[in-house]
Amino acid sequence: MIIKGKKNRYLRSQAATMKPVLQVGREGISENLLNQFEVLIEKNELIKISLLQNTAVEPKDLIDALNEFDENIVPIQTIGSKMIFYKKASKIKNRKYSIELEKM
């Protein structure tokens, strides 16, 4: 799934003031990281991840690993070591951004 145009700009603007809630470090892409990501993305729909300097993980590797983990995860933007991901929440009470996207 790819989000383009107004929807992508909206999500990028919402993530601009966010701080990274997850960091990929020396351990790289582990089962623990994927489990934490799953919990955070389900609760927030839109999250920012930071790749630390001591990691060997490239942004492309993380995108591929997350797509294998769940094909509904959408990479929105990658700038340097910061990455933004979106996934529509399954619980209605956690939907904030998806409601706005449906209006567009």
From TrEMBL:
<dbReference type="GO" id="GO:0003723">
    <property type="term" value="F:RNA binding"/>
</dbReference>
<dbReference type="Pfam" id="PF01985">
    <property type="entry name" value="CRS1_YhbY"/>
</dbReference>
<protein>
    <recommendedName>
        <fullName>CRM domain-containing protein</fullName>
    </recommendedName>
</protein>
<dbReference type="InterPro" id="IPR051925">
    <property type="entry name" value="RNA-binding_domain"/>
</dbReference>
<keyword id="KW-0694">RNA-binding</keyword>
<dbReference type="InterPro" id="IPR001890">
    <property type="entry name" value="RNA-binding_CRM"/>
</dbReference>
<dbReference type="InterPro" id="IPR035920">
    <property type="entry name" value="YhbY-like_sf"/>
</dbReference>
<feature type="domain" description="CRM">
    <location>
        <begin position="1"/>
        <end position="98"/>
    </location>
</feature>
